[in-house]
Write a structure and sequence with these properties.
The complex is a heterodimer. By secondary structure, chain A is mainly beta. In chain A, the strands form two sheets. In chain A, strands 2, 4, 5, 9, 10 and 11 form a six-stranded mixed β-sheet that branches. In chain A, strands 1-3-8-7-6 form a five-stranded antiparallel β-sheet, with no helix packed on it. In chain A, β7 and β8 form a beta hairpin. Chain B is an all-beta fold. Classes of the chains: A mainly beta, B mainly beta. Chains A and B meet through β4, β5 and β10 of A and β5 and β10 of B.
Chain lengths: 112, 114
């Protein structure tokens, strides 16, 4: 089955700096890669997603890049703010399955 | 607010007991997914229902079962509970059943087995 690895597990940045979280996947047939943000006491919330026919997608301060050849994708957050502090999960949907396989999560802390 | 409602928010029970977790999907969504989140296992997919029928099964124990009712709400039943079943249980919903569907998560039920 699909295996998604996520790094780093924790990340601290100064407010205004950029943050990058990386994920690799194992199933070359995977075709959908969402990113979720989980704030304390809440469920994961979709913040951006990318499909395998696209290399990059941007939404304001958030961008995701996908390298199908290397089977990795990354989340980029620019001009970080304290409210960006949360746990971020990457995920992939294998070509043969319907359910998401999640990475292990990254605790992002934005220091004021 | 995702539109997905889970009850109860917290549940404390003893080993060997049985509990039921309830989920109401977003209006119009036909698929319901259950996930278990623990510190050492991350977000683990348990089971998916689409319009009342089971569609996919993940790492769900035989002691656990689920169903989706005609009004599309879903229940996850956990029986013969063990200490290791303590976790946060999330329900998510989506419009259809395709693999590229956007999932909307509820706020979860925190289960503590003592």
């Amino acid at each position: 089955g699909e295996n998604v690895e996520q790094h780093p597990s924790t990340l601290s940045v100064q407010e205004g700096d950029s943050a990058v979280i990386k994920c690799t996947y194992s199933d070359s047939a995977s075709n959908y890669f969402p990113w979720y943000k989980q704030e304390l006491g809440k469920g994961p919330q979709l913040i951006i997603d990318i499909r395998s026919n696209v290399g990059e997608k941007k939404d304001q301060r958030i961008a995701v890049t996908l390298n199908k050849t290397a089977k990795h994708f990354s989340l980029h957050i620019t001009e970080t703010q304290p409210e960006d502090s949360a746990v971020y999960f990457c995920a992939a949907v294998p070509g043969s399955a319907r359910q998401l396989t999640f990475g292990s999560g990254t605790q992002l802390t934005v220091l004021p | 607010d995702s539109g997905v409602t889970q009850t109860p928010k917290h549940l404390i029970t003893a080993t060997g007991q049985r509990v039921t977790l309830r989920c109401s999907p977003r209006s119009g969504d036909l698929s319901v997914y259950w996930y278990q989140q623990s510190l050492d296992q991350g977000l683990q997919f348990l089971i998916q229902y689409y319009n009342g029928e089971e569609r996919a099964k993940g790492n769900i124990l035989e002691r656990f079962s689920a169903q989706q009712f005609p009004d599309l709400h879903s229940e996850l039943n956990l029986s013969s509970l063990e200490l290791g079943d303590s976790a946060l249980y999330f329900c998510a919903s989506s419009l259809s059943t395709g693999g590229g569907e956007k999932l909307f998560f509820g706020s979860g039920t925190q289960l503590s087995v003592l």
